[in-house]
Amino acid sequence: MKHLKDLDFKYKRVLVRADFNVPIENGDIKDDFRIRLALPTLEYILNQSRSKIVVISHLGRPDGKIAPEFSLKPVSEMLSTLLKKEVKFIADIKSSEGDTAIRNLSDGEIALAENIRFYPEEEANDEKFSIDICHHFGAYVNDAFSASHRAHATIAQIPRWKPSCAGFLMQKEIEELSKALKPAKRPSMAIIGGAKLETKLPVIENLAKIYDVVLLGGRISVEAKEKNMKFPQNVVLPEDFADDNFDIGPKTIQKYILAISAASFVVWNGPMGKFEDETYREGTDRVYEAIVSSDAWKIAGGGESAEYINSKKGAGKFDFISSGGGAMLEFLSGKVLPGIKALEDSQ
Ligand code: 3PG
């Protein structure tokens, strides 16, 4: 796979796929974590003489239709503030106005295109659409690790047509999550919580093969117990729950804290309970405190865990926090993500 340093961006129009799928309420961006993570790649390309950038991203799941509540316009404004330069906004990248806007970009300029999922061809992984989108560009950069588990046109197809590479964020995610697949210290421990048992089963199974211990919490552990599911011996389910099963119970908390304090390598994905409600936050709080106060190598990820850690201003206490939710889980399940495969196969 090529990295930014392997491609020459001078004099080029560069297409960057980012993941600006951020929470927005009434036009206000509630968490700019993912926008900030894209800055090093954008700044690096803009510093190459006479380059220009168009960034594409999705936001939410508008289902191939134009939906104003999923507009990326607020993101272009935030990006402009963070980059301290104007970010043009391309309302329709497939229209003749979009074409003109791209061709008229001056050296050193940057534009953000409207939500790429407003076009049904994106999620349909349409080949012709991907060619239409990238035909103006001399290079393509995928910095959207967190969307790279999706076989969508601007992720899985464009590297077939253009010189392509991973951005800094993509590169870092692959490096750090690859370490999580080969724990360098023992005892190693994975802690998996949150909801959606179906999507978490492959990761639990894979990590159970790699890690000494896998602790389960959150909704998935309630469901697994209700269904009387069988796991390998090193997978630990809670002994008790508190508050109508919305949190792990006091005995489990004590047991997990003790286990975490003995671990030398910890991967954490998913809260231990319904943490967004203060009443059910005890388990997640105590597990978080145990992780951050240990000397273990620590990595965390998943939308809810990242949100929780950011709310605690705890990002600096981890060795790495993945920007990926589903993408992190699929990577840790041992799958090759379509976006990563496309970059690997690209000439
Ligand atoms: C995410 O937030 O995990 C990514 O942006 C992917 O979004 P999706 O689940 O809607 O494809």
What this model shows, in words?
By secondary structure, this protein is of the alpha/beta class. 39% of the residues lie in helices and 16% in strands. It contains 14 helices and 16 strands. Helix 1 packs across helix 2, helix 8 runs parallel beside helix 13 and helix 10 runs parallel beside helix 11 (282-292).
Layout of SSEs?
Blueprint: E1 13-17, E2 24-25, E3 28-29, H1 33-46, E4 52-56, H2 73-83, E5 87-90, H3 96-103, E6 110-113, H4 120-123, H5 127-134, E7 139-142, H6 153-157, E8 164-166, H7 168-180, E9 188-192, H8 197-210, E10 213-216, H9 218-226, E11 235-236, E12 241-242, E13 247-248, H10 250-262, E14 265-269, H11 282-292, E15 297-301, H12 303-311, E16 320-321, H13 326-332, H14 338-345
Parallel strand pairs: 1-4, 1-7, 4-6, 5-6, 7-8, 9-10, 9-14, 10-11, 14-15, 15-16
Antiparallel strand pairs: 2-3, 12-13
Helix pairs in contact: 1-2, 8-13, 10-11
The protein binds 3-phosphoglyceric acid (3PG).
The site of 3-phosphoglyceric acid has 8 residues, from loops.
What is the overall number of helices? 14
* Whole-number total of structural domains: 2
CATH fold descriptor of the largest domain: Rossmann fold
Topology, number of strands: 16
Strand content: 15-25%
CATH-assigned homologous superfamily of the largest domain: Phosphoglycerate kinase, N-terminal domain
The outline comes out as: elongated
Structural class: alpha/beta
- Calculate the mean pLDDT score and round it: 96
CATH architecture of the largest domain: 3-Layer(aba) Sandwich
- The SSE order reads EEEHEHEHEHHEHEHEHEHEEEHEHEHEHH
Biggest β-sheet, characterized? Answer: 6 strands, parallel
Spatial strand order of the main sheet:
5-6-4-1-7-8
Which segments are poorly predicted (pLDDT under 50) over 5 or more consecutive residues?
none
> What is the helix content?
25-40%
Q: State Rg.
A: 21 Å
Distance linking N and C termini? 9 Å
- Name the hetero compounds present: 3-phosphoglyceric acid
Can you tell me the CATH class of the largest domain?
Alpha Beta
